[in-house]
Amino acid sequence: MRIGMIGLGKMGGNMAERLRRAGHEVVGYDRDPAISDVGSLKELAERLEAPRAVWVMVPAGEPTRATVAELGEILDAGDVIIDGGNSHYIDDQRHAEELKAKNVGFVDVGVSGGVWGLENGYALMAGGDAEHIERLMPIFKALKPEGPDGFVHAGAVGAGHFAKMVHNGIEYGMMQAFAEGWELLEAADVVTDVAGAFKSWRHGTVIRSWLLDLMVRALEEDPELAGLRGYAQDSGEGRWTVQAAVDHAVPLPVITAALYARFASRQDDSPAMKVVAALRNQFGGHAVTSATSGGDGESPSGTAG
């Protein structure tokens, strides 16, 4: 299958490569001409056969809105746009409604897998009409991990990003729990091998997980996390998850507290936030702030939590 990929950064570039390895033809566009196959979105559309499929992998918010709007002017009836960034589900529903006038389809896909997805595959949560999902299944199957799991048609337009939003909220809570546990072990005199304690939990325990594996990896690289400043950015999904909880009167004390902990990290150098920063760097390649520098070191609109 031939597909267009807009945005060839850490996630988009790796996804394009995984698709190519699976035998699909990818026409990529990026603002950086050194890595772009075409010079414009119009040229990208001309390189694709109708009905076209174009996957958008740019930062959430205005960059995605502007890209979808431009594609809406270029594409024809029967084409479909896939938003694989971390857009707000309300934006998805608005885009689908606007594109309906031209009979251009819209599918939102929450993507998880970070910088490891090229080799391990990406977990995909899709929202959209069944006919569009079915047409794109060869692409989804190539991107997801091997085996029966890793993909869900979560519902209508907006459902994919809503599911990913909640996923990232859960991720906030899990990382915060590991971070607080690490800080307590470091503060006490009883345990002298903190990194070893975390490593011992990787097998046979109820908290074994990929995040725990990444925690161990981070501690092997820097046992005291001395090279990091206890500052962790939030990419937006945590805030949206908490707001959705308010809208639906659903209590989310753990996720809410984890979000507020990230806010607190920006006031002082928090030991626990060194763990959160390290984990975000491990799974998503997010920028970190060194212990000797100031500022946040990254923008708040990435593609992983």
From TrEMBL:
Keywords: Gluconate utilization, Oxidoreductase. It comes from the Bacteria. Pfam families: 6PGD, NAD_binding_2. GO terms for biological process: D-gluconate metabolic process; organic acid catabolic process; pentose-phosphate shunt. The active site is at residue 164. Belongs to the 6-phosphogluconate dehydrogenase family. Belongs to the HIBADH-related family. This is 6-phosphogluconate dehydrogenase. It comes from Sinosporangium siamense.
